[in-house]
Amino acid sequence: MVPLLQKEGFPVQAVWGRTQEEAESLASELDIPFSTSKTDDVLLHPEVHLVCILTPPPHTRQIAVKALGIGKNVISEQAATLTDACKMVTAARYYPQLMSIMGNSLRFLPAFVQMKRLLGEGYCGNLQVCEARVYGGSLLSQSYGWAWEELMGGGGLHTVGSCIIDLLSHLTGRRAVRVHGMLRTFVRQGGPAGGIRSVTADDYACFQLLMNGGVVCSVTLNFNLPGTDVHEIMLVGSSGRLIARGTELYGQRASMQVEELLLSDGGEGVGPSVRGLNSMVTQLRLSFQAQEDRRSWARHPVSMAASFEDGLYVQTVVDAIKRSNRTGEWESVEVKIQDIDPNHNHRTLPN
Amino acid sequence: MVPLLQKEGFPVQAVWGRTQEEAESLASELDIPFSTSKTDDVLLHPEVHLVCILTPPPHTRQIAVKALGIGKNVISEQAATLTDACKMVTAARYYPQLMSIMGNSLRFLPAFVQMKRLLGEGYCGNLQVCEARVYGGSLLSQSYGWAWEELMGGGGLHTVGSCIIDLLSHLTGRRAVRVHGMLRTFVRQGGPAGGIRSVTADDYACFQLLMNGGVVCSVTLNFNLPGTDVHEIMLVGSSGRLIARGTELYGQRASMQVEELLLSDGGEGVGPSVRGLNSMVTQLRLSFQAQEDRRSWARHPVSMAASFEDGLYVQTVVDAIKRSNRTGEWESVEVKIQDIDPNHNHRTLPN
Fold first, then answer.
1. CA-CA distance, B265 to B110, in Å (whole number)?
2. pTM for the full model?
């Protein structure tokens, strides 16, 4: 992300790394004047006005809430738990003058921007079904880390599924009312010498979302397919369909014999997430340029971005899918900020 | 099917049509000496030794049971109900010297024959997930008929899903223990002048089968995609995957960077069902030639074919999926021939 920000003219002032060595190495490689292994040093840095949070999910909430409290704008990845997502929304509501957006770059991918526009123009007629498939290799880090642990925000559903759930809501303008899901961890052990650590995070997820208005979404994620890179979203309506494959968009109205290529993005091997990130940073810059006062970004938010409220919705759906996986039943999606048990997840989420 | 049988040297002696005119037209077109609109006339015809039942599902059981009772060999499509499937199994058990097989031609498609062989040879390692997708245009007949009615054996789940459920069991050598499903009828009305008749048969189905041994199958059927013809089955295991797209077979072991084409069938636009039917009829002929006494076919059955017992299993799974669609819960699959309520489905299944 740093090179993308720099390319768009954002001066990247400070970088955080897990260790001082990692931070210094990143700073040197990316030409960043300040590096640290303490997140507070970044947040308190006087030249830092926008904080991009790309840390392990269990740290996300704490950094996001603190950054807003210090008066910094925030782009954040999904937090680890529903409690965290609630606290982030509370902070975002408390500092409405600051920018607080989720970093789901898929919303900015040109294929999905055009898909949303065409859907709105009636290309598909009445929307019936959305199908999403993401297949790829293992999401596990080489050495043991948060990605291995379900409760720390690891797993295909939390990391990739979150982006798809957000995207489907963004594209269709609808939210899930009830969900059903099935999660599996097929690769249950790993480690450099094999069999050392157990994995609790899912590597396969199959879930259905019933959206308001009767639209059905079906999503399949499988990260046991090394050497594959399938990223496909299909919207089917009464009079046509739109299909995004990777960074390309295809369409077929009911009257057509064959698909038409609607957008060839020429990504040259760059996947949808990276390509989307590129567009997101460009939008950030445009949003930035459109304003005289840098600190009032929030008054002209990056209109396509997901808000922290959207992040709470996504986390609520993710939790409902996990609940459905345990109960075997359809679970209701009720987005609420109150009534969160303050002791919930204490063991896994120490302050 | 008649031209395929004739091409393989089977003399087709009699044909049934819904009306005498239709029967005569078929007989004339296909060069068949005898035609009738009464099914009994075919069954009792002295030159008929093998009866291929391709009638509307509500007639299937009656014809199949009667044909076996008269001493004729039978190839049958899926019956309309579980009660019917039970009665067919009872008849097949009562006449073990006669051939009684289900007409699911997908089992005979060369791509699936090779897929089953490679799976058995360990191409995929430990099997984890099967994904099946069938997308196409409407299954409804032009004018109102059984295909419009769920209780008469219409709908994507019953007609196409049955073949997929049978195929997945055949390929993996496993059976579904529990199932979950969601059915929809998006096109709810139809007719030559529009809006005349209501449709109860599903045009969208999304279901999951938990197979013994922990294998997960996920199937999506969507018949609201005119101008599309997707027929894809993917088996994913610990060390590789096999993918049948239409009549072609692809594979990728975990060590490979790209997919390999394992079988290019050169179907020239012929879909998997028709191509499979071709192979099935060829197998029938080979099975036929391997025997001196035509009446003892059952002693050398067409080994790949689905038995009526397999048909009962498939119907049991279909019923469990329909039940799950109503209850929203995972439903157990318990194949049993006894304890069928004799009054069940009486309204929809008059003798």
1. 8
2. 0.91
